[in-house]
Design goal:
The complex is a heterodimer of chains A (about 120) and B (about 120).
Chain A lengths: L3 E4 L2 E4 L5 E7 L4 E9 L6 E7 L5 E2 L8 E7 L2 E6 L8 E9 L8 E3 L3 E5 L1
Parallel strand pairs in A: 2-11
Antiparallel strand pairs in A: 1-3, 3-8, 4-5, 4-9, 5-6, 7-8, 9-10, 9-11
Chain B lengths: L3 E2 L4 E5 L4 E7 L4 E9 L6 E7 L4 E4 L2 E6 L4 E6 L8 E9 L9 E2 L3 E6 L1
Parallel strand pairs in B: 2-11
Antiparallel strand pairs in B: 1-3, 3-8, 4-5, 4-9, 6-7, 7-8, 9-10, 9-11
Classes of the chains: A mainly beta (about 120), B mainly beta (about 120).
Chain lengths: ~120, ~120
C-alpha cells in the first residue's frame, strides 16, 4: 500500500528558531502533498496544498512567510516553521495524493510530527 | 465554523456488537464523504467513502450510510472487534469539477471496543 513518512516524529525547539519537517511518499509519486495542523481537541486543519515544482497554495489565515513549503520532487515536500513561537506548538501532519486523475483520489497520511516550542 | 461535525467525542461498544459513528455536515456543496481511522502515533488511514449519488456503501464489516436531506452520514461497524479501537474521522469534499477539491475533516470520535 501507499506509505508516507514524516521526519522527525517529535521535535522540541527554542522560541525564535526554525524547524524543518520532511514528508516523503515512499512507494508512489505524489504530485500533490498537503500539510495539516491539529491542535488538541480540534480537527485536522489544512494549512497548504503543495504541488511539485510550483508554489504552495496556502489556506486563509496561514502565513506563507512563516510556514515555508517546498515540494522539490515527486516524493518529497518540506515544511519549515520559521521563527517558531510557543503558539506554533502543534501536531503537524502531511498527506500525499496518489494521483490517478480522479478528484476523489485518496490521500495517504504520514504519522505526524509533534512540535513543541519552548 | 465547523462544517463537518462529529458530536460524540467518544464511544464504547462491546466486542461483537455494532458500532455506529455519526457525522453531520452543513455545507450543501459537499458531494463526497470519507471516513478515516487513526491509531495513536500514526497518520489517519482511509477506510471507506461514499459519493452523494449513493445512500449506502459497504466494504466488509464497514458500511457508510448517507442521508443527504438530513446532511448526515454514519459509519456502521459490524461486528466490532478490539482492533477497531481508534479515532475515526469523518471528512467531506465538494464535487470535482475537474480538479482536486479540499477535504474538510471533523474533530474525530474515539471508539473503544471492549473485549
Amino acid at each position: 500500500g501507499a506509505v508516507v513518512s514524516q521526519h522527525p516524529s517529535r521535535v522540541i525547539c527554542k522560541s525564535g528558531t526554525s524547524v524543518k519537517i520532511e514528508c516523503r511518499s515512499l512507494d508512489f509519486q505524489a504530485t500533490t502533498m498537503f500539510w495539516y495542523r491539529q491542535f488538541p481537541k480540534q480537527s485536522l486543519m489544512l494549512m497548504a496544498t503543495s504541488n511539485e515544482g510550483s508554489k504552495a497554495t496556502y489556506e486563509q489565515g496561514v502565513e506563507k512567510d512563516k510556514f515555508l513549503i517546498n515540494h522539490a520532487s515527486l516524493t518529497l515536500s518540506t515544511l519549515t516553521v520559521t521563527s517558531a513561537h510557543p503558539e506554533d506548538s502543534s501536531f503537524y501532519i502531511c498527506s500525499a495524493r496518489d494521483f490517478r486523475g480522479f478528484v476523489t483520489d485518496t490521500q495517504y497520511f504520514g504519522p505526524g510530527t509533534r512540535l513543541t516550542v519552548l | 465554523d465547523q462544517q463537518v461535525k462529529q458530536n460524540s467525542p467518544s464511544l464504547s461498544v462491546q466486542e461483537g456488537r455494532i458500532s455506529i459513528l455519526n457525522c453531520d455536515y452543513t455545507n450543501s456543496m459537499f458531494d463526497y464523504f470519507l471516513w478515516y481511522k487513526k491509531y495513536p502515533a500514526e497518520g489517519p488511514t482511509f477506510l471507506i467513502s461514499i459519493s452523494s449519488i449513493k445512500d449506502k456503501n459497504e466494504d466488509g464489516r464497514f458500511t457508510v450510510f448517507l442521508n443527504k436531506s438530513a446532511k448526515h452520514l454514519s459509519l456502521h461497524i459490524v461486528p466490532s472487534q478490539p482492533g477497531d479501537s481508534a479515532v475515526y474521522f469523518c471528512a467531506a469534499s465538494p464535487a470535482g469539477g475537474g480538479g482536486y477539491q479540499k477535504v474538510t475533516f471533523g474533530i474525530g470520535t474515539k471508539l473503544q471496543v471492549i473485549p
